Amino acid sequence: MLGSLGREDRLQLMKFVCAFAWADLEIQSEERHFVDKLVEKLGLEDDRDLIKGWLRSPPPAEEVDPTRVPTEHREVFLDAARQLFEADGVVDPHEQEQFELLQQLLI
Q1: CATH of 2-106, one of 1.10.3680, 3.30.9, 2.40.128, 3.40.1000
Q2: Which residues touch 15 (CB under 8 Å, ≥6 apart)?
Q3: pTM for this one?
């Protein structure tokens, strides 16, 4: 399903993933690794510096509005967030809360 995303949608997905990595206010090395692998999987190597910037400082909240995610891509976004939260093997209560909120907004 990732293949159905255009470049702008793939970048938006990465913006969401990076924003959710900040849910517990700390970026874990496993989360960085997940982001790196997702960059490769999505073919966004040319945008790696931009995406790494979102791990240094979270993207602005207004740029990660779940209601602006196209309906046909919502499950992909939700799945990516789930995988990110599980990447370090520990789901922080803040991460769980953010995931549940995202799930409510997208479904």
Answers
A1: 1.10.3680
A2: 54, 59, 63, 64
A3: 0.89
